[in-house]
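Changelog-linked ticket: zinc ion example.
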Amino acid sequence: MVPPPMTATKGPVEPAQVPVPDNILLQEWTGPYEGVPPWDQVRPDQFPQAFQFAIDEQSREYQAIANNPEAPTFANTIEPMERAGQRLDRVQAIFGVMTSNLSTPEIQELDKEWSPRLTAARDDIVLNPQLFARIETLYNNRSGLGLTSVQDRLLTRTFEYFVRQGARLTPEQKTQLSAMNQQLSSLFSEFNSRLLADEGTFTQASAAEMRGVPQDVRDAAAAAARDRNLPAGTFAIRNTRSAVEPVLTFADSRPLRERVWRAFVNRGDNANQNDTNQIISQIVKLRADRARLLGYPSHAHWRMQDTMAGDPERAMELMMGVWPAAVGRVREEVRDMQPLARRDGIRGAIEPWDYRYYMEKVRKARFDLSEDEIKPYFELSNLVEGMFWTAGQLFDMQFKENTGQVPVFHPDVRTWEVSDGRTGRTIGVFYLDTYAREGKRSGAWMTTYRSRSRLLGDDIVLASNNNNFTKPSAGQPVLISLDDAQTLFHEFGHAVHFLLVDVTYPSLGGAQRDFVEYPSQVMENWLLTREVLDRFARHHQTGQPMPRALVDKIKRAETFNQGFATVEYLSSALVDMKLHLDPTGVVDPDEFERRTLAEIGMPREMVMRHRLPQFGHLFSSDSYSAGYYSYLWSEVMDADTWAAFEEAGGPFDRTVADRFRTYILATGNETDRAEAYRAFRGRDPDVRALMTRRGFPVAPGGAR
Ligand SMILES: [Zn+2]
């Protein structure tokens, strides 16, 4: 996951006329690497002044562009827009870490207060008629402006963005729209703080109930219980994915599995002060009303304008093309589990809290392979070295740890200097915030505090990866599951992408939502290559590499469990899309979820990966709303790209890697992404690669 793109990082249009207050958040970043965020000097009480000053300064910058008496040109309108708001972007980069990684009640209050104000400030720009008139004039005359193709794309995208965001509405409609946007911002903040509160809860367990659970997970749960002053000999299972899934996979106690499962899937859905259902209803209604105001049939249609898929129908078509095979595979998986469950005295159905447990037993029986067997070889520091090595082999990137030499926002954060091995030039700093803790949101994500842009002279990228692995007790190794290791590589893939982006205009540095998950998903593939496993999957006690027989078993089991994984994901993506296709937006989330899952034929043994009351992708901002399908859309390109490596010399084929870097990564969004793909692959992506990878039947036919 990546956060919504910031408005971009830019330089001042002209020297600010107003003296800058003495506030660290408002200063240029100083120190090494063209300046780094001054985490060590940041205090929450500095934000109100910083936000207000930076918003006002940005407003002055845009007023100067909008009210320029000279006729509009690319150089006096579009370029200064690209440079505007730099100070505000720096403040927001720091505040984003406060809300995501270091949240406290004080930060949440600040977020609730300032989110709507920041939204209003953005609307003031987008809805400014003088500014839009200049952009529109340029757009209408763009063929005669002598623009490069990249400048033409920037102008076109800027124009389309303004139109999409309401630049053509009447003044009354603009007032309405801005009010809706501000209400939505407040609701997103409220959703976040409620979900965070529910994820701060835990399930208590006895030693007997923890039977079957691996030692490192027990140790972490025991430490969590001590932190909460629970009686000795009890365990606390945090209500986050990394803590919950090992218990669901290994705990022999069915009642414990059920308790842990219920706590996890009911986050935000407990009819108490943290319940999010009412918030979600309001968000969905406001989104539908806003889409209607903007002239779109639904929120999904509006959101999907700037995507590769282009409209909800194409996304639905892809999802429904995969769904039946995935459901069919779940039926087989359940059939395989039933005899094992019966042996444990389970007469009735496999329940959702049984699925992972028996899936693990089937894997053991069929492939003689257990998560338990893999984990001792998946030591976090080694895998981190493995992902750096991979980036070195493919893209000549070199990572040198420099923890302690740049300020960090938490003592657990480690940092690396990133350089280009071909030139020796420093290209970035990589920040890694590994562990779950109170006040950090769940899941995993990547951000940049600063991106590369030639226009602004920003060359050294500041990129971060954020995970939620369980912190071990002192002196213990961090052993992570296969799933967590894939997440580690996934987020690193986002970082590699943004470290290699090489564009002129900041607004063309990002990527569309359904493209941005493509480089990150490609990166996951390298984890299970022999080259990486042999070197970096080393036993945490003996240092021995993973035995060949175990590697072979992992390879053989690669498509195992794809029914579960695909249905868990796709059900969430389908519910998201259908929810945001409703033109009225009047929904009861609980009822909608139940009805939609029944309609699509959700297997009763399973639950969505993210139920609506906790679906942060959809309700913590607009960015992944009607956009959770993006992972599948991106995976079509990912699987087809991996096939390109396999068809060539293998996972580390340099010719393919160079093309991938040149056409896909470095270009950011400077060229049309479908064309970029064709330039890389010589054709459109072929969806059959995805079906093959997941072990689903492949229909004959052409490429999509
Ligand atoms: Zn991602």
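Closing comment: Example verified and attached. Residues 5-13 have pLDDT under 50 and may be disordered. The pocket of zinc ion is lined by residues 1-2, 490, 494, 517, 520 (CB under 6 Å).
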